[in-house]
Amino acid sequence: MLITSKVTRRWVLPKGTVKAGLDPRASAQEEAFEEAGVGGHVAPRCIGTYGYAKKNGKRGQFCLVRVYPLRVLRLSADWPERRQRRREWATFSTASARVHEPALKRILRGFEQRLKLAAPRAAASRQRGR
């Protein structure tokens, strides 16, 4: 799922600062709900990092983002930033074309490849379990 940023309206992933008292995964889960209205299970490992310059008034601040996949189990019609952002489901190829950061494009394409490789193994495992 992509969302628009508040200021520039670019397509981005939900993200934010790690909040006091939360680990990065819990913070990612909270940000996903606040910014996109989604809930679910966050993967135990970060799948990549990328940096970007955040526009704070006239000065920029460099931010480093750790990307955690989230298996969406809940989609809310009402969430804290629903009036400030758009959200949209997108394929990996569409998402990687819409985001601006080259490293994020690579992360999205790489994750899609990992999922494709994992699908046959998961199906085979289910077959053996029958």
Summarize this structure as a short list of keywords or feature phrases.
single chain, 130 residues, alpha+beta, Nucleoside Triphosphate Pyrophosphohydrolase, 3-stranded antiparallel β-sheet, two-stranded antiparallel sheet, 7 strands
Describe this structure in words.
There is one protein chain. The chain is of the alpha+beta class. It has a single domain (2-128), classed as Nucleoside Triphosphate Pyrophosphohydrolase (Alpha-Beta Complex), CATH 3.90.79. 36% of the residues lie in helices and 28% in strands. The chain has helices at 24-36, 92-98, 102-128; strands at 2-4, 11-12, 38-42, 48-56, 59-67, 70-75, 87-88. The strands form 3 sheets. The chain has a 3-stranded antiparallel β-sheet with strand order 2-1-7, with no helix packed on it. A two-stranded antiparallel ribbon has the order 3-6. Strand 4 (48-56) and strand 5 form a beta hairpin. Helix 2 runs antiparallel to helix 3 (102-128). The N and C termini lie far apart (33 Å).
**Can you give the mean pLDDT?**
92
- Residue windows where pLDDT falls under 50 for at least 5 positions: none
Number of helices: 3
**Shape designation:** globular
How many domains? The number is 1
Order of strands across the widest beta sheet? 2-1-7
Structural class: alpha+beta
DSSP helix fraction: 25-40%
CATH topology: Nucleoside Triphosphate Pyrophosphohydrolase
